[in-house]
Structures are given as structure tokens and as C-alpha cells.
Design brief:
The complex is a heterodimer of chains A (130) and B (439). Chain A is an all-alpha fold and 130 residues long. Chain A is 43% helix and 0% strand. Chain A has one domain (4-127): Orthogonal Bundle (Cytochrome Bc1 Complex, Chain D, domain 2), CATH 1.10.760. The two termini of chain A are 17 Å apart. The relative contact order of chain A is 0.21. With 439 residues, chain B is mainly beta. Chain B is globular. The chains are: A mainly alpha (130), B mainly beta (439).
Chain lengths: 130, 439
């Protein structure tokens, strides 16, 4: 759930990302605001967007570019720690679509189905979490 | 309560489950437990509509089906919680005089959470601050595991419990029917049953269940009466001087379909509970137990459904409905004619929550009986406004405490008290300001 301050930060971050041309082609159509809603509906039960705030799953603050299984104070599965994954947007999308397929033996139980637009929006939102 | 003065055995048979259910409604009003939040690392709002129990989100439904064992993987979580409720209620006494009562309604301790990787508990011991009575209020001890069956995920489990429906994962029938909080001064609300409701805290049931592919839920169980001496030791309530008859091998079933679309969810289901009580007893004027009926057969069946609009959790809207019918046949101990009765219960409630903090609920209820000579019936509407300031991410004291404060009005359009139509049903109305905290 986002406070007005967080929403403003997200908007600024999104603008900065766009201006710098850092948005990847797959996320080009992503909408950060809608992505925040996708996050709240699909992810927020188990994940926080705040730094150092872990729920059942690790914080997704700065998740893009992070090596899997490395957030302190999170009890990861052995499979996740050994996966060697670095969370690129493509990898996040694949993992969300099929957690057990990408990390057999992992813990994440997410069973939702995101369409292409929702995926793009979510990834655009996650990219702002810096 | 007027029913206490009704003399005939037939009326007592009807009064007993009524009183038991009214007591149970007050006593089973909780399942919003911070020990679960501490165990999982999640917010109350992850599992509960409005960030407070017992109304469950799809995530909460799956947590219950999973045997209360899901966790963040960290050790040293103590599965203990507590709960205290207090209320101020305005009502009218039997003489029609306006009265009010402030009470610490209940205090409970819970063994609630993961005991091993596969075993979890929801066990509630409650001190009733009005009746000054302690009992094993709720017991739901579970063993559950997840399997892969033909490429589909299947959770399979067992529940040992002390009231039919306390183990139900959708929290929408029987023990968990809306409203979730009622004052001890509230009058009968909906239909009153010998099976579901009347057997609470007097039986032990073992139920096997499965959830397949996160959609299809099936459950079958068998209930037996606990020995009367054990019921007494566990504080099981005696209803109007009647001891619950012996029940052996009473079958229970539940089938349901759940669809969790994350931004919205719905569930539909059916359930049934059949049994034959034998050797019912009542207390005579000297306090001795004497036979009241030889056999009393009940057949409970019901259908229920829920819809939840969850969206991004800023605006949450729910609709819950349930219909239950009970058919009873009684063979009196004195050899008089067999009697039959049919009781029905209708519930429909809709709620809106803003940011899982500010809630408004409107509910319709109706209980009917075919026994117009001695049965009880009621029909009315319920309104509730509530405020749940905590239970969200970064809430104050999370995950150590939560609280709900509410204002509730129960208003009757019809009230039949043991065969007598009350001329002014609004005399049965209650207005309650309540505080409900868990820690």
C-alpha cells in the first residue's frame, strides 16, 4: 500500500527511468502506477517494497539486478540459494509465471496469472524500487 | 431469558439448542490471531477481510487448509495468542424497560500456530466474563501436507475438532456465521439447530479433507459425543438444564469450489451433518438427571457462497450468504408420540472496507420453524460500523496486537419466542459498542 509520499517517489523514479532511456523494451509499455496496483493485488501479501522489510518473502526493494537468495534475515530454500539467478526483468516475469518451474524446490506458492500488460506494469513498478 | 421459564420437555428440547447457539455465537467470535502473523511474517490483512478475523481472504482460507503451519521459515515462534472483548449494550428487559450493560465479555488464550512442519493448531480456551465460566471453546488440531496428484497440487489433511464447522476453511457457516461479534445481551439470531450449533463443545470429530488445484475442496468427518464427565471438565455449556444426548458416528460432509483471481474471489459450497442423539437427559427440580428423550434424529444440510472484490485492497467489498435447514424427529422418553420439526436459517451479509481499516456491514437474517406451537423464529437486519486501525504493514505494534472497535445494531422485524409472537419485535433490538483486541 502506497503513501502519497511513496507515490510521488514512484512517479519521479518512473520519470527518471524514462528520461534516461533505461527502460527495457519488454517493459516499455509498462505503467508504474498500474504496476503498483498489480503489486498490491498480487504480491503484497507476502512481499514489501520497503528496504529491509521482509514478510513471508523477501523485500522486493531493489529486486531488479539482485542475486537470488541474498537478502539478509530471510530463510531461503536451498534451491533458491543454489539457483544462481540474477533477477532481470525477464527472469522475474518467468518466475512469477511459474515459480516451481524456474526454481524447482523453491518455496514461493504464487498461482496467479498475469497478462502481458500486467506483467509489463509490474516490472515497470519494480524497476522504480531503488 | 424467557425461555428459561418454559416448562414442558418439548419446549426444552427446542430451547436447548437455542441457548447453546446463542452462547456459542457470543463465544466463537474470534479468530484474528497475531501469533499467526508472527509465524508467517505477514499482516493480519493478508488473511482477513478488514484486517481482523474471522472473515478470511483466499490467502487465509489456504492458510487454514494448510493446517496453520505456513511460516516465514524462522524458528522460535511461540504459537500463543490472547484475546479480550468488551462491550456496552443497550437492550430492553422482559418488562420492556430500557437497560444497558457494560461487560468484559470474554477473555481467551489460544494455542494457535505451527506445532511441527505438518501439524498446527487453533485451540481456544475462553473465560466468559458474563457467565463467569471457562471452557474449551474451540479446538481445531490439524495435520496437513501437500502432494502432487496427476500434475495437480493437492493439500490433504486431518482435523480433530470439537464443533462441526469450526474446522470449515471458508469461515462462512455454523460457528463462523456473520455477525462475528454479538453481545451476550443480543437475542436469538437466525435458526437454532440441534446438530450444527447444538453439538458445539460436546463432541469430538475427526475430519479428512483435501483441496485440489486450489479450487476443489472436499471433506468428510465423523463426530461422537464426549463423555458427559469430560464435557463437564472441559466446561461445555449446559443448555437450559439439558445434557446433550449421546451421539455416535454422526457423519459430516462438505464440498466447495473456490476461485481465487487475486483481485476478486468467490466460493460456493454445500455441507451436511446428520446424527441421532440417544438417551437425552434433563435436570429435574432436585438437580438429578432424568431421561428426556430416547432418540432425537437430526438432518442438517446447507448451501453457502461468498464473493469478494479485493482489487488493490484499497476498496474491499464482500457478499456472504448461507442457507441451512434442519429436520428433527424426536422420540420422547415418556413414550408419547414422535414429533417432527423443520428449522431453517437464512443469512445474507454485505460489507465494505476502506483500506482494510474502516468497515460497514449490513446483514439480513431469518430463522424459521415448523413448530408453531413451541418453536422460535426471528427475522431482522443488522448494521455495523467498525474501525480496525492496525493489522497492516508497519501498523503500530504489528505483529503483536490488533484491535477492532465497532458499533452494532441488531433490529428485529419479527420475533417468535417459544411459540409466542412478540407483539413489539423491536423490544428485542440491541445496540452495542464493542472493543475487540487480540495479541
Amino acid at each position: 500500500m502506497k503513501s502519497p509520499l511513496q507515490a510521488a517517489q514512484l512517479a519521479l523514479s518512473a520519470a527518471a527511468v524514462s528520461l534516461l532511456g533505461l527502460a527495457l523494451p519488454a517493459q516499455a509499455a509498462g505503467n508504474v502506477e498500474r504496476g503498483g496496483d498489480v503489486f498490491d493485488a498480487q504480491c503484497a501479501e507476502c512481499h514489501s517494497v520497503k528496504a529491509n522489510k521482509n514478510k513471508k518473502g523477501p523485500t522486493l526493494f531493489a529486486v531488479i539486478g539482485r542475486k537470488a537468495g541474498t537478502v539478509p534475515d530471510v530463510v531461503y530454500s536451498d534451491a533458491m540459494k543454489a539457483s544462481g539467478i540474477v533477477w532481470t526483468p525477464d527472469k522475474v516475469e518467468a518466475y512469477v509465471a511459474n515459480p516451481k518451474g524456474v526454481v524447482p524446490g523453491g518455496k514461493m506458492k504464487y498461482d496467479g496469472k498475469l497478462n502481458a500488460q500486467e506483467n509489463a506494469d509490474l516490472l515497470a513498478f519494480l524497476a522504480t524500487l531503488r | 431469558m424467557r425461555l428459561a421459564s418454559i416448562g414442558s420437555r418439548a419446549r426444552q428440547w427446542l430451547a436447548a439448542p437455542l441457548l447453546a447457539t446463542v452462547a456459542a455465537l457470543a463465544a466463537t467470535s474470534a479468530q484474528a490471531l497475531p501469533s499467526y502473523a508472527r509465524q508467517t511474517g505477514q499482516d493480519c490483512a493478508a488473511c482477513h477481510i478488514g484486517a481482523f478475523g474471522p472473515q478470511l481472504t483466499p490467502y487465509g482460507i489456504k492458510f487454514k487448509i494448510g493446517g496453520y503451519t505456513d511460516s516465514d521459515g524462522k524458528a522460535s515462534k511461540v504459537p500463543l495468542s490472547g484475546m479480550v472483548t468488551a462491550d456496552y449494550t443497550q437492550f430492553k428487559n422482559d418488562a420492556g424497560e430500557s437497560k444497558s450493560k457494560t461487560s468484559m465479555s470474554e477473555a481467551s488464550i489460544f494455542l494457535a500456530g505451527r506445532l511441527t512442519d505438518k501439524i498446527g493448531s487453533f485451540t481456544q480456551v475462553t473465560y466468559d466474563g458474563v457467565e463467569h465460566h471457562t471452557s474449551l471453546d474451540g479446538l481445531d488440531l490439524r495435520l496437513a501436507d501437500t502432494f502432487n496428484v496427476a500434475g495437480k497440487e493437492a493439500v490433504i489433511g486431518l482435523s480433530l475438532n470439537n464443533k462441526p464447522t469450526v474446522q470449515d476453511p471458508f469461515n462462512n457457516i455454523g460457528s463462523w456465521s456473520a455477525p462475528y461479534f454479538t453481545s451476550h445481551k443480543a437475542n436469538a439470531l437466525g435458526g437454532e439447530f440441534n446438530g450444527v450449533g447444538g453439538s458445539e463443545q460436546k463432541v469430538l470429530g475427526l475430519n479428512a479433507y483435501t483441496l485440489i488445484d486450489n479450487n476443489w475442496y472436499a471433506e468428510a468427518g465423523v463426530y461422537n459425543s464426549m463423555p458427559t464427565s469430560l464435557q463437564s471438565r472441559l466446561g461445555s455449556p449446559r443448555a437450559d438444564g439439558l445434557a446433550y444426548g449421546k451421539l455416535h458416528g454422526a457423519p459430516y460432509y462438505r464440498l466447495a469450489y473456490l476461485q481465487d483471481l487475486k483481485t476478486q474471489a468467490f466460493q460456493v459450497g454445500v455441507f451436511g451433518f446428520n446424527g441421532t442423539q440417544k438417551n437425552g437427559q434433563e435436570y429435574d427440580d432436585t438437580g438429578a438427571l432424568v431421561p428426556s428423550f430416547n432418540r432425537q434424529k437430526f438432518r442438517d444440510s446447507g448451501i453457502d457462497g461468498t464473493y469478494q472484490f479485493l482489487g488493490n485492497r484499497q476498496h474491499v467489498f464482500t457478499v456472504n450468504g448461507a442457507y441451512v435447514i434442519e429436520r428433527t424427529t424426536t422420540n420422547p422418553a415418556d413414550g408419547s408420540d414422535t414429533s417432527s420439526a423443520k428449522t431453517k436459517d437464512y443469512r445474507l451479509a454485505t460489507s465494505y472496507f476502506f483500506r482494510n481499516t474502516y468497515g460497514a456491514t449490513v446483514g439480513l437474517f431469518k430463522g424459521t420453524t415448523s413448530d408453531t406451537a413451541a418453536g422460535s423464529a426471528n427475522r431482522g437486519v443488522l448494521f455495523q460500523l467498525d474501525w480496525t486501525p492496525f493489522g497492516k504493514e508497519d501498523s503500530w505494534l504489528a505483529p503483536w496486537a490488533n484491535v477492532r472497535v465497532g458499533l452494532q445494531r441488531i433490529s428485529y422485524r419479527q420475533y417468535v419466542d417459544a411459540g409466542t409472537l412478540i407483539a413489539h419485535p423491536h423490544d428485542k433490538d440491541t445496540t452495542t459498542l464493542f472493543a475487540w483486541t487480540s495479541f
